[in-house]
# Entry
Amino acid sequence: MWKTKNGLYRERVTINGQTKILSDKNKIDLMLKIAQVKDLKNHTPTFREAADMWREEKQDRVSPGTWRCYEAPLNQLTEYFGDEELGNISPRDVQHFLNGLTMSYKSTMTRKGLISQVFDFAIVDLGLDLRNPCDRVKVDTKLPRSTRSALTEEQIQAIKDTTKDELILAPVIYYTGMRCGEALALQFKDINFAEKTIAISKSIYHQGNRPLLTTPKTEAGVRIVPLLPQLEALLPKKHRKTDYVVSGSDPLTKSALDKRWKKWEKAHGVHFDRHSIRHTYATMLYESGVDVKSAQKLLGHANFQTTMDVYTHLSDRHLREASEKLENYLK
# Structure
């Protein structure tokens, strides 16, 4: 057993020929986990036990933002299936749980996906002789679907009207398609003014109020995007390479970010979700004729289907608008 620099206790454990590294902030809790894992040869773990071990395996391999999206659903699943042994959870049990949710299609699919991942972990990583009950479970395709809307013309104009003296977070996202965390982590050393390119290779996330730097969990997150002249015009000529483009010498704390964002919104008389700016960038790519494969690279999507879903949604919207225009014309 050893202790890492960030205060975690870790230990290597071999089960069914596979070596795993378990960790915990508390030494006693780690010893209990080790005993739990070694005891798997004698009993099928409960959903709670398997979910806890899957959490240890998965958490370090996804971005903090992605994991935050997993936390509440995983807690809900653990509370529902609790101390039921995995071998006793049937497709009917999973279907009953999903049918009882009053959520959107995406939220329901997230929960089904998490159940499936816990079972796959038990089957593949722990070598248990089980069947994944999610393989025969269906989610109602008629459930409501939430879609993120592009910004209005007024909101886009507010971004275009932003001056050098203001928070330039919105223009950075609008002209590059970065995620908010990527924009907050952007430094002048990442910008090649001669080649007119921007290298995206890191992101800021907040732990409480404190900003922390992280790197992308997928290769797609590391990418090069063009430096558009509209954004370059907002950047100061004199700067230190280590300065952050949005905030100066240091990245913004959560409270400072929220305060400055609200001040920017009030100054321009608008209010919207920062994530909608990135969706608007995707819309611009679609409307300007950028092919879906190039859009995937610019947006940093690891999954091609994610970009396809965005483009398909935009295509469907344009078809509806065209149909309405034709119908109004014929009237």
Observations:
- Strands lie at 2-3, 9-15, 18-24, 191-192, 197-200, 203-207, 210-214, 223-226.
- The chain is about 50% helix and 10% strand.
- The radius of gyration is 24 Å.
